[in-house]
């Protein structure tokens, strides 16, 4: 019973955050093909380049992906972070729901034995 309640609350906050991220992306002055690159950031806050390349495989080529990512970073829609050999991209977006979600996930990890992956990957 407690598990269902906690996961339900977390899911509501996660959905609110995804809606705000989607609205943020739609407000940006980004061309149509470049919005394709931004779509995965609605569900996940930070994405590693190789995962982003895998998500867009078959839709755009890798060099085109790099070009689009450079453009949206220059437009200040995404932030780029390098850690060793890995490159991570994050939406340049702040929301109080992000902090709320982090707190709720910490609480859930302490109290629950299982948390679904789709909730952890926010």
Structural commentary:
- This protein has one domain: Arc Repressor Mutant, subunit A.
- Helix content is about 60%, strand content about 10%.
- The protein is built from 6 helices and 3 strands; from the N terminus they run ααβααββαα.
- The chain has helices at about 1-25, 30-40, 50-55, 60-75, 95-110, 115-120, and strands at about 45-50, 80-85, 85-90.
- The protein has a 3-stranded antiparallel sheet with strand order 1-3-2.
- Strand 2 and strand 3 form a beta hairpin.
- About 15% of the residues are buried.
Give the secondary structure arrangement, pairings included.
Layout: H1 2-27, H2 32-38, E1 46-48, H3 49-55, H4 62-74, E2 78-83, E3 86-91, H5 96-111, H6 117-120
Helix pairs in contact: 1-5
Summary of the model, kept short:
The protein is of the alpha+beta class. It contains six helices and three strands, in the order H-H-E-H-H-E-E-H-H.
